[in-house]
Amino acid sequence: MLKILVIDDNQPICQALQTLFSLQGYQVFCASEPALAWQKLASNDIDLVLQDMNFSAGEMHGDQGKTLFYQLRQHYPDLPIVLMTAWTQLDMVVELVKAGATDYIAKPWDDQRLLLTVANALKLKQLAVQQQRLERERQAAFAGKELCNMVFASSKMQQLLQMTLQLAPANAAVLITGPNGAGKEGIANVLHANSPRKNKPFIKVNMGALPGDLMEAELFGAEAGAYSGASKTRIGRFEAADGGTLFLDEIGNLSLAGQAKLLRVLQTGEFERLGSSQTRHTDVRVISATNSDLTAAISRGEFRQDLYYRVNVVQLQIPALCERPEDIPVLARYFLAGKKTLSRAAGQQLQSYSWPGNVRELQNVCQRALLLSSNAEIQADELGLPDNPITAKRSLDDIDRLQLEQALLQAGGVVSRAAKQLGISRQALYRRMEFYGIATP
Q1: pLDDT per residue as tens digits for the range 244-288
Q2: How many CB atoms are located within 10 Å of the residue 339 CB?
Q3: Contact yes or no for 184/148 (Cβ under 8 A)
Q4: What is the rounded CA–CA span in Å between residue 85 and residue 56?
Q5: Pair 182, 319: CB distance under 8 Å
Q6: Which of 41, 72, 217, 394 could make an S-S bridge to 222, C-beta 3.0–4.6 Å?
Q7: Element housing 304 (H / E)
Q8: Distance (Å, rounded) from C-alpha 250 to C-alpha 277?
Q9: Percentage of the chain surpassing pLDDT 70?
Q10: In the CATH scheme, what is the homologous superfamily, with its name and number, of domain 155-317?
């Protein structure tokens, strides 16, 4: 049974609230002054506090309640506190909400609104506890593993990294798919760093940055004079990566001739440098990545089907950043490296932006803001984001229960903030909360 502590010097109000909440299945404790409240808190596992702002006859300025609130927040930082008063000025209420008060209810109150406010606050507390448990589980799942500075908070990335770590000890070829800037190279690094080859070379080849006539020389090497400008012997990436891992980024850009040679290496471990007939042997694990549809390229005759099956023994799909919005704030903090913080409006703007350039674009935005902002706290207009937020595209059906609950949690239960973060109207958020059976304040 959930426990509520009512702190109010007015006995009839305490009795009325005790009756109201008891009928809903809550266990209610009452305290007429702060000293009694501390005793109740010490002897009971209280889930929520409903606190008046004045405890003495004639007191109407709310200073007593303000002092008690800050003391409670210091000793019980995770305890939901709902404030109740008929006298407190709006500026004090705003201050206390910013300081962590869950909500504010005016006297005389509406029973239904009060019950919903309390139910929502308790639900958010349960979500916070659940998130803490998931974080502990995440830390336990990745204990002793090398994550290569992969920063995340979303369940999608946790599942992807768990699969990555499961594949790391194997020698199988892996194809990493996903949009540009999403972190494909990071996943390749994790595969190598947790494999038996971790102390051997990790060699990356950006296939999209190489001219077609130099790609084979880059991969397989070339003898002096093998092509124009080749004044000395060139060691190819397969030789350089021997015993380790070769990461072929944007493999879809490899020429058909290069594909045939790559297929042979994957099948036999053998190749020849350009300009040489000497067969060489190599032992590498090949990890490939692409942002294109290789099956469509096969249909167009641009990519070999047999090579596709060789490089795609296992496929890892990394989601776009807009598909895992929980990762945006933790990534931003990582990129800012403690040098500056984000204002609330700046954080909301990061959450509402669609991130077509994914993690790489977010990193660039944070680095630019660090350079250009003259304040310790970066403001929204200093981010320099173009005007293409998710709000222009997002529909109500795109918001699932988990996203909704996380947005409410991050917004401290304030529906207007959660709606702005999700990129929908407040009315739409209320409808979605009603659809999922989530209590509304």
Answers
A1: 999 999 999 888 888 998 999 999 999 988 888 899 999 999 999
A2: 11
A3: no
A4: 13
A5: yes
A6: 217
A7: none
A8: 29
A9: 89
A10: P-loop containing nucleotide triphosphate hydrolases (3.40.50.300)
Q: Which residues of 202-211 are buried (b: 16+ CB within 10 A; e: fewer)?
A: bbbbebeebe
pTM: 0.65
Give the tens place of pLDDT for each residue, 121-165: 888 888 777 777 777 887 888 989 999 999 998 889 999 999 999
Distance CA 429, CA 404 (A): 8
pLDDT surpasses 50 at 110: yes
Instruction: For residue range 8-45, list pLDDT tens digits in order.
Output: 988 999 999 999 999 999 999 999 999 999 999 999 99
Q: How many CB atoms lie under 10 A from the CB of residue 334?
A: 16
Place of tokens 């950043």: 321
Give the residue from 303, 220, 209 showing the smallest Cα distance to 255. 303
Q: How far is CA 150 from CA 84, 190, 324, 345, in A?
A: 44, 9, 14, 26
Which fold does the domain 322-436 belong to in CATH? Helicase, Ruva Protein; domain 3 (1.10.8)
Tell me the average pLDDT of the chain: 86
* CA proximity to 159, closest of 323, 272, 45, 347: 323
Q: First CA to last CA across the chain, in angstroms?
A: 21
Sign of the alpha-carbon dihedral angle for 408, 414, 417, 419: positive
Architecture of the domain spanning 3-109:
3-Layer(aba) Sandwich (3.40)
